[in-house]
Amino acid sequence: MTRTTVRIAMNGVTGRMGHRQHLVRSLLALRAQGGLELADGTVIWPEPVLVGRSPHKLRALAERHGLEHWSCDLDAVLADDSIDVYFDAQVTAARAEAVKKAIAAGKHLYVEKPTASDLAGALELARLARDAGVKHGVVQDKLFLPGLRKLRRLVEGGFFGRILSVRGEFGYWVFEGDWQQAQRPSWNYRAEDGGGITADMFPHWEYVLHELFGPVRTVQAHITTHVPRRWDESGTPYDATADDAAYGIFELTGGIVAQINSSWAVRVHRDELVEFQVDGTEGSAVAGLRRCRVQHRSSTPKPVWNPDIPAAEPFRDQWQEVPDNADFDNGFKAQWELFLRHVVRDEPWRWDLAAGARGVQLAELGLRSSAQGRRLEVPELTL
């Protein structure tokens, strides 16, 4: 057995997403299973090098997980020739500068989204990475959720016939922070720090729609801040300057219409925190994080509108569960495995910084659409 070590500088792992999903549930989980074994018996062994601003937090994190290497000096880490990959899960406002440094140092790149604060910055990163000849990837984790993998299976199998529409609901109530602590960091609600649900979620919706149903051609959005005052981690009140709700209508290639609501000011009355309903001429499906249920044309009941009597039909019971038919691993870990294979063996990879730029573009156009009160076309990007 040959072991290939890939040293990964992980910047931003003291944050919620970087720590839980990327470090613990992805790379440390890979190490716990003995590494990523390839068909010829070679094992890819990821070795995280923790990077951040707080020595106290980094030291504690390294000790908790039995890791040897951490640093608060990003420049020194990038100057280390043994570092193969730079990973970035920092706040958005800090990402572009650090990624540029990693490109200049010749490191392969794997970054969270949005990749930059604006489209110009996102395109610049994509061009710099292309010209430098480094491998680069953007986290697009929702494609690897069990529910959406089942949904892709239905699309590719022709279950829907001609797809007509997609309706998505995402969100939950994020506590304001006064009498119950907020579940999200306060920077999410400050525009000056790169916050806002549009910048956060529209990049997700871009790749979900693009990959499963087709490229987005137009966008019309209404974006607002429902909760204008919040309390930060220290209990200090602040003005929420970033949007906490975004309501979007997207027209896709082929005439499919997608409507997706994203809100941190909504209480959940659905089975999962995100759900997509897809309707087609031959059938419909409702997919969430893990589950996917279908109703085929041949078994669709015939509801009749009658507001004068109570509804007696068990609507949810009229749908059929799509079986797993496979073991679904953590979505972040699944994409990390593909990226590591791409780095070590040059296996196919399509979720690059150009794809990340499309997400930034959609968020930017969504904000502009809301400000101008009109529908906007989404032009194709060229590097």
What is this entry, summarized?
The chain has 383 residues and is of the alpha/beta class.
Give your account of this protein's structure.
The structure is a single chain. This protein has 383 residues and is α/β, with parallel strands linked by helices. It starts with a strand and ends in a 6-residue tail after the last strand. The chain is globular, with a radius of gyration of 22 Å. The chain has helices spanning 16-32, 55-65, 74-78, 92-104, 119-132, 146-156, 197-212, 331-345, 353-372, and strands at residues 3-11, 36-37, 43-51, 70-71, 85-88, 108-111, 136-138, 163-171, 216-224, 229-231, 237-239, 245-252, 257-263, 274-280, 283-287, 292-296, 320-321, 376-377. The protein has nine helices and 18 strands. It has a nine-stranded mixed beta sheet with strand order 17-16-15-14-8-13-12-9-18. Strands 1, 2, 3, 4, 5, 6 and 7 form a seven-stranded mixed beta sheet that branches. Strand 3, helix 2 (55-65) and strand 4 (70-71) form a beta-alpha-beta unit. The longest helix is centred in the C-terminal third of the chain and has 20 residues, at 353-372.
